[in-house]
Amino acid sequence: MKSLIVRIQEAAAGALQACYQVEAAPESLSVQETKKEFPGDYTLVTFPLSRYKLGAPEQVGQRLGEYLAGQGDLVAEFNVVKGFLNLSLAEAVWRAALAEMRAEGPAFLRNTLGAGQTVVVEYCSPNTNKPLHLGHVRNIVLGDSLTRILDANGFRAVPVCLFNDRGTNISKSMYAWQQAGRQDTPESAGKKGDKFVGDYYVQFKHLLEAETEAGKALGLSEEAAEQQAPSMQAIREMTVRWEHNDPEIRALWSRMNGWVYAAMQETFRRLHIEFDRYYYESDIYHLGKETVAEGLARGIFYAKPDGSVWIDLTGDGLDHKLVLRSDGTSVYITQDLAVADAKYEDYRMDRSIFVVGNEQEYHFKVLFLILQKLGKPYASHLFHLSYGMVELPTGKMKTREGTTVEADDLLDDMIATARQYTSELGKTEGMSAEELEELYHTLGLSALKYFLVKVDPKKRMLFDPAESVDIHGHTGPFVQYAYTRTAALRRKQEEIGVFDPAAQPEDPMHDHERSLLRLLARYPDTLREAGELYNPALVANYAYELAKEFNRFYHGDKILQSARPLTSAFRYALAQQTGEVLREAFRLLGIGMPERM
To answer: Is residue 104 within a helix (H) or strand (E), and if so which, with residue range?
Structure first.
């Protein structure tokens, strides 16, 4: 379906030629949806036409409006407000637009923006020393929805996850487990593997704090006391032994990481998340060390007397960055150099997107700059999708002293909140226990995902579980409820007979119908913009606006009225197209649509 905005641009370009003998590229003309306080569907902004010296913007708008309305096939009415020509499209245009949407089917819901291009989207990237938490959930929701949006825009979108599964942090959990006697397992403790390992990470923190206090009592500074603490020395030794393939350390590391991998896969399944590829820092960190050696030989890096390797980025407005420790062990940026190469070798991607919180903005500036200095062919096609942190109202969720809110606890609480809220509404008569549990899970997941994705990724946000599930608020369940109304209409229509979708209604089009059609026609442009800006919030907020407009239409117009069968056929087709767009928009956000609520 050709965009209505494009059709108006083309018609306006023709009007300029006919009225003023001015040749203007259609895409250069500014056309937007008319503001709600003025009558009209779309507005041609005439201020920019002053460059052609045609006269006052109001006069130009009046003349162009008269010409367009006189053609009779596109514009029915117009009005001019200063430099804005507001156009009301003919009813036949809107009816034809709906017919085209219905005829195109799934093709209407996709774009060709990225045809022939591959984009790798890296997100989640958890450490294997603790469970996934609320911050990871926002990361996952953004990464998953961005991947789906890029796919719908015609890209080959590849979701990948990097496990940060080696280094000092996992060594801390390993050391604490050793100190505890090496007997407990997740099974014996009755815990998920990631929670089990994470508890030992917390135990190490307490152990180190006690040793640090003991060192300070001997007169050491806090920093010196921590660095000289026996547990920290043991950690450094353990990390070096791991990099030298010590069998005992490797066996322990493999066992504990195995517990975490399995547990995190369970959380991914609960979130309905799948990755095309998993990268493991432990598999490729040595390739990063080889890259450092190559850069050192080329003079891009330099070595200090203690053997550590650095890069001087002061000439680029940054600072000196460590890329290899003096003991030969790697740091985060070492592995990231290797992962960037591995992704390019695997996919030869046209773009590579890193979905990581905004506290890592400096890290990615450094990483991208180093890759450019190394002359990597993909270095100019990297993008850091930086997102703000997410916080919770005090006391709204279960928390544990000294820890963040864990993803599994969050999911459990969201499902419980959805169960309580839905039960209070009392609209689930006739549903089996199995259907109800599936509904609670769908609503809980919707409330969580939608609330996290509706905010622009760059902004910090406050997540309120109770607010997120409110069926009357700016929430996922609100949109889902609008969809279930379209599903109920479909079930009812099946009882009373099949409508002819090409039938012309007996009644003139109502404002609710025009507004709903205008929003539906906007969907391809919204999808394209979300793909261009890497911003799933545009799709989320579009779905909310569409659901609101549908509810006005639903309450304002009788849809299935047997006395006016042709009007009913048109309105039914309009409702079903709305349902299909809502369902697809939520699919792009990783959210399912229930048929009943």
So the answer is: helix 91-104
Q: Which residue has the tokens 């890759």?
A: 371
- The number of CA neighbours under 13 Å toward the Cβ of 381 is 17
CA atoms of 266 and 195, how far apart (whole Å): 12
Supply angle C-alpha 238, 306, 365, rounded to 5. 80
DSSP 300: S
Tell me the Cα Rg of the chain: 29
Pure H helices in 349-498: 361-373, 407-425, 433-453, 465-468, 476-496
In this structure, what token pair is assigned to residue 274? 């799948």
Classify residue 165 by its DSSP letter: -
Closest by CA to 534, choosing from 106, 221, 122, 196, is 122
Give the span between the Cα atoms of 553 and 52, in whole angstroms. Answer: 42
Cα–Cα distance measured from residue 316 to residue 184, given in angstroms and rounded to the nearest whole number:
51
Dihedral class, residue 154 (left if φ above 0, else alpha if ψ from -120 to 50, else beta): left
| Measured distance CA(294)–CA(324) in Å, rounded | 13
Report yes or no: 282 and 249 within 8 Å, Cβ to Cβ. no
Q: Please tell me what DSSP assigns to residue 107.
A: G
User: The whole model's pTM is what?
Assistant: 0.92
User: 10 Å Cβ neighbour count for 375?
Assistant: 9
Q: How far apart are CA 169 and CA 127, in angstroms?
A: 8
Look up residue 427 and give its DSSP letter.
-
CB 103 within 8 A of CB 86: no
Q: At what angle do helices 433-453 and 407-425 cross, to 10 degrees?
A: 120
Q: What share of the chain is helix, strand, coil (3-state, %, to 5)?
A: 60, 10, 30
**Are the C-beta atoms of residues 500 and 568 closer than 8 Å to each other?**
no
Q: Are strands 390-391 and 461-462 parallel, antiparallel or unpaired?
A: parallel
Give the rounded distance of the alpha carbon of 199 from its chain centre.
30
Of 366, 439, 343, whose CA–CA distance to 120 is shortest? 343
Crossing angle between the packed helical segments 193-217 and 168-179, to the nearest 10 degrees: 90
Q: What is the pLDDT along the chain (597 residues), one digit of tens a residue?
A: 889 999 999 999 999 999 999 999 999 999 999 999 999 999 999 999 999 999 999 999 999 999 999 987 999 999 999 999 999 999 999 999 999 999 999 999 999 999 999 999 999 999 999 999 999 999 999 999 999 999 999 999 999 999 999 989 999 999 999 998 788 999 999 999 999 999 999 999 999 999 999 999 999 999 999 999 999 999 999 999 998 999 999 999 999 999 999 999 999 999 999 999 999 999 998 999 999 999 999 999 999 999 999 999 999 999 999 999 998 888 889 999 999 999 999 999 999 999 999 999 999 999 999 999 999 999 999 999 999 988 877 644 343 344 478 999 999 999 999 998 888 877 777 889 999 999 999 999 999 999 999 999 999 998 888 889 888 899 999 999 999 999 999 998 888 776 665 666 777 888 899 999 999 999 999 999 999 999 999 999 999 999 999 999 999 878 887 567 788 889 999 999 999 999 999 999 999 999 988
Q: Give burial (CB, 10 Å; 0-12/13-18/19+) of 86.
A: buried
Number of neighbouring beta carbons within 10 Å of residue 233: 12
